[in-house]
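Reminder to self: tokens first, then the designed residues, so the page reads top to bottom the way the pipeline ran.
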């Protein structure tokens, strides 16, 4: 009879809700139980402890990524430019008007003197 070998690292199969929340980026307790209640992840009660199947958490994240809309790079750049320009105007204490042109050069900023 050969001895039983135990691997040095045993992958974690289940975890508690608190660990699931950390895996999901520190989501709220309410959001975690909403995800569990919807059946999006597999879980069961072990006595009074709610245990969540780790593989189902990763499948949930994969489904969320597939369902997410791709981000249009130009929209992100325009939003960032508007944010920077409005902060610049607040810092200068002047009214700022941002003109956006689709697909063109970066937005230009018109600063009106004397307006608050």
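Designed residues (116 positions):
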């Amino acid at each position: 009879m050969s001895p039983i070998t135990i691997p040095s690292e045993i992958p974690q199969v289940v975890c508690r809700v608190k660990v699931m929340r950390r895996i999901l980026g520190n989501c709220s307790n309410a959001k975690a139980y909403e995800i569990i209640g919807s059946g999006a992840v597999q879980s069961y009660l072990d006595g009074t402890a709610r245990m969540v199947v780790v593989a189902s958490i990763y499948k949930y994240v994969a489904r969320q990524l597939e369902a997410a809309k791709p981000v249009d790079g130009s929209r992100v750049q325009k939003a960032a430019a508007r944010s920077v320009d409005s902060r610049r105007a607040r810092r200068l204490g002047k009214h700022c008007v941002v003109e956006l042109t689709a697909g063109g050069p970066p937005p230009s900023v018109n600063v009106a003197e004397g307006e608050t």
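The radius of gyration is 25 Å.
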